[in-house]
């Protein structure tokens, strides 16, 4: 990945970072109800797609750390959870990439696992600090399950455009 | 021991975990206890807020458009209801003006500069909301430069919706009153019953299924009924007296027949707000 494309990827990552909060706010009446709570994860989606679909670039680990730090600082003020989770996901995907074929099904499957790991990890971290909301059963049924459902559908819809964009960049256009 | 330190990967993982736990503990302490975060964090948050405003602008426009269409559809019914209230409102306005003038004069005579019910308003726009919403935090576009301070109450529409959690130069984080954060400062409130008696308590939680706030620590023999008004009591913190919180919907008594938990329907929909007002109490003090 050359320098220009790396920064283009970062620019999209920053847009995705703020899109998570913007979409949550704009659709709060639909995404946050007494029966379910959906957390949009555009940034995680972008990181998973970039790391799985493009060849290994270890700068992405540092990028994950910085993006995670900003995510923590902006949305919660407690710095560390996403700053650890994003590089961990990037590292994990880089490692697993060697053993799996690169196609749509596996990309969405890896995104699914990433959401479960990141959302649950951050939830337990917050619970440990006493700032988490639901009990475990409530979290799984009202937060994790709807979040997975909506985000995986979104991942399927956005797979085509993302692949086209990344392939274009990879071929140097 | 030598073998343990020879395992480079394990040491790296341990260092990362220790560093993460340290930053979590430190930033959590800063967020909960300090009036404002360090300069670097304030600057980063302000820059992030500008970027967030750019990204969320189209979303906010769509949201506003959707609201406007909704308002347009409801116009006829709303107009009928408003006409009914019009005459009564004019009468109340006239009475209010007289009472305000009288109150001002009496305060002057008593040499009272400000009381717990005096405050100024700082209007702000909502920029973004925390995606993983178990902390119930949203971001606004006003900070210390506009006079916003940590723990100031925030209202939207008819009533109280939260308090300022973290303040930066040109932005702030607001924690909703419905938060499950056990370390959050609680809002002191009072119920004004039909006999004009005042019953004190605090908002200590949120019941998700019924979408009501839980008022506890009530110690009274006075009667509380459904429909009684709940307002802030002005005791403690930076919250003035008399901000509307909601209406009583249910009362659960303890074993001795005294009200233990009062369920309060918030005056404002906690998942539908775009413009908020930060309240700055005239009488300062923690």
From TrEMBL, chain B:
Residues in Rod shape-determining protein MreC beta-barrel core domain copies: 126-279
Keyword NADP: no
InterPro entries in the record: Cell/Rod_1, Cell/Rod_MreC_2, MreC, MreC_beta-barrel_core
Origin: domain of life: Bacteria
Keywords per UniProt: Cell shape, Coiled coil
UniProt-listed GO biological process terms: regulation of cell shape
Coiled coil as UniProt keyword: yes
GO cellular component labels: plasma membrane
Family, as annotated: Belongs to the MreC family.
Function noted in UniProt: Involved in formation and maintenance of cell shape.
Name under which the protein is recorded: Cell shape-determining protein MreC
Native organism: Schleiferilactobacillus shenzhenensis LY-73
